[in-house]
Amino acid sequence: MIIANPIGAARTSPYVAIDAYANIVANYPAASYVGGIARASDLGKAGVEVISSGSNWIVSGGTFVNILNTMASVKYIVINSSGLTYSQSGTTVTVTATGHGFTAATNNGASIYLTQSTGALVSGWFTNLTYVDANTFTCTSTVSQTTSGNLGANSAETFMPTFMAMPDGLFVDGTLYQSQISYMCKSTAGNKTVRTYFGSYGPSNSAVKTTGSFFDLLSSNLFLFSSSTSFFCGATQGLITMSGSKDFKGSLQIASAGDWAMAIPSYVQIYGA
Fold it and tell me: Secondary structure of the chain: what % helix, strand, coil (to 5)?
């Protein structure tokens, strides 16, 4: 839905427009709607109000908003699958993993990263993890085939799909940004590492767990923007220049065979300059 009210026209809605942020930027030049308020419908579950500063459509000064809030609806699991076996029929993949530690209540519906060792399974993300019993679970492939074999080791840092691509123009001098991931892991002695990223920056923000089966939180540093392409990140780290994307994403790294960790992107919050 788009509701437009040029400056000077009779206002039938409190908003200049209700549309995706990119469409607001493209179709309602900030210079033509100074002080006007629009609702970016694709940011957050209910949309986020943005105001024209004359140069950008930004979150209103002094406003603290969630622009992403998954409410535990998105879950990603990385498992070091060395020694596990699988069979696939159609798009359903059945994995045998003795004492895997998943539960239906907590893990069902997650996407899981599997690494193929033998057979024709295509390594990557599989959707709709479903608990079968204490030693078996299923998941869904995008490829339909009949195959079976062994899964392989994966102890490398594995990135989850981008949680949110942060729009250009939303961040201006003085904007504060923070993100958070909720996570849990199998209760074993092996290292399970979760990291948050903002664009290319973030590896220093990591949590290593050697016991688990409970939820914990990992927050990013609080970023204070000094321009649209750089930000301050703590007193000791100072000014950091962004390169490339401003995407919010995360990664998981599992040291030991059979171990796993699950991450849920919890929120992205910004405080308007």
Answer: 5, 45, 50
